[in-house]
Amino acid sequence: MTQTLDQIFVLAAHRLMSYLPAAFHPLCSAILSVAAIIIVFATLFALTTWLERKGLGRIQNRYGPNRVGPCGILQPIADGVKSLTKEDIVPITADHAVHFLAPVLLVAASFLGYAVLPIGRNMVLVNLNAGVLYFFAVGSMMELAVFMAGWSSRSKYSLLGAMRAIAQMISYEVPLVLASIVVIMQAGSLSTVSIVDLQAAYTGIWPHWFVFTPWGFAGFVLFMVAATAESNRSPFDLPEGESEIIAGYYTEYSGFKFALFFLGEYIGMFATSGMAITLFLGGWSAPFSFLTWVPSYVWFFAKLLAIISVFIWIRGTLPRLRMDQLMNLAWEFMLPMALLNLFTAGLWHFMAAGSLRWLVCSTMVVVPCILLSRGLKHKKKFQVRTYHYSQ
Amino acid sequence: MVGDGILKGMAETARNFFGSYVSKDRLVTLQYPEQRDPPIESARSFPFLVFDGADWQQGMRCVACQICEKECPPKCIFIEKSKDKKPDAYGKPQFFPATFNIDISVCMSCQICVEVCPFDAIKMDVVTDLSSADRFGGLLLDRQRLAKSDEYYNSIHPTEAAAVDARRAAEQARQAAKAKAAAEAKSDAEAKLAEATPAQPAIGEPQ
Predict the structure, then answer these.
(1) What count of CB pairs under 8 Å joins A to B?
(2) Which of A134, A147, B22, B174 is the residue whose CA sits 20 to 30 A from B194?
(3) What is the mean pLDDT of residues B61-84?
């Protein structure tokens, strides 16, 4: 029974396929899975915009949206209708083709990553043996879309916003990938499916998730910080600053194209969160061995929603960083920590299991973290700012 | 240690998040159309016309003197004087506005019309939810939409309305006294005239 419930979508897809001639099977099965992914994650996007507005409202002691439907749950539909009926304005000097393609490419690129995410047991679109590599490769296409948007708008705000966004996304791509390498080292595979399978084992009631190791925990934290910056979310939401560069690279977008940027950003955030779940939080596996009867996809989405809530929580808490702080964090703190974490993971692999391994590896994570943050704090000098050109 | 400030801040926001579900006092937002702030006495939005009694046409204080129309800086008032007269609140026959329009899309709520009105006929309202999909009809208030009772005026600006009522009562008393005095004088004169009449032939008597 639990087996059937766990595999219900897989079985349903097989059942549907059985009505078709065998020659169509690969194509139709791919289309079916793609449609399912698009529908599920677009719905999750709608739900998240509502959750985010509600959560931020409550954090600021407000109600949040409460007019459309019960508790404002239909707010995303109202927003969608609004953005669809709005006038689509394209600047007359803009490069029309590129201006149109940028949001399309952004959404397409952010959806491509889902191809390798195992949403449940046997529920992955393609089990690539270089899945993690593929994920980061298509993820970097988003930078291209951002730059297309900024460049084609022919507006200085768009261009500056795009430059900022690209600088940020490229800088944080480095710690993002380096933080995930420790998992690849440990798993010995780039396939997301085998990475999850490795973590879906239990000692007693405790799962073998990589986050429960010193290097895994450090990697997870680094990965999540980098993922926040990758998806341009607060506190790293510099690419849009109302007081400086208006809405950044999508200043010149309106109506549904603007909504597409919004969609692309959230879909990208879910994809990176899904990758964090796959790499560190055991993918679809249950957190305790006695909970394995719950269908695997439920666990995946529960973890995804938990990460989304933390994202919302952080957005409601932290103020925005300055550009130099943002870059310093990436290059002076996260990059050394991520590189050091590779050594920790290597040491963990070669040391015999036991409390000594835990002690050594934890020290290798905690001590550099403290020293590095202290050192960076001392390095800061506060002085009167001198302007060379404006005086 | 790096990050302890972040954790402190996150604890604070979490406290706000859960606290807003526990105690309603935290949620200070007023759910506007259903809930409203208590009215502020000195608030003002747009002018309205005061009438006494039950019938707005009968009790209209405005006598169409058109001072407000002339004084209005953005010229948002349009008045057409009536041809005939009707008795006002004191029973004196007066002109009345056949048309009295205020375009509230032009009105700047300066209150000059209120200050210049010698009859306390135009006062400032406090209603703010006047938005309309029809820019011309919806925002051009005619005299029926402008007419509001003295009781309403008393309810929105109690202090000011009490002063106005006292002044009007005093004025009414003065008018009544004057009328009475005039009547008395008239009757006295008549009486004198009546007294004098019989003697009249005497006056005409030849000397």
Answers:
(1) 41
(2) B174
(3) 90
